[in-house]
What does this fold into?
Amino acid sequence: MDEVSRALRYRAWHRGTREADMMIGGFFDAHHSSWGSHERALFAALLAETDVDIMAWAIGTQDVPERYQGPLMEAMRRLDFIKVPK
It folds into this structure.
């Protein structure tokens, strides 16, 4: 993993709540290896948003802003990457 990916991973997994860590960090782990520079930049911008907003967009309780609409957010909205401990 390169330096940019390591920094994004850290920011994705250290959000402040376990739920946000699992959603945003889990999404990063599941998808980052297929991202190009555009997706990395979009994800980096997304990380500047509040956890409440990101989670609301992902679960569909708020409309996704136009700047984040597209394949990256569609993948996040599937929520198929979250591993819930039993």
About this structure: The first helix runs from residue 3 to 13. The chain has a mean pLDDT of 94.
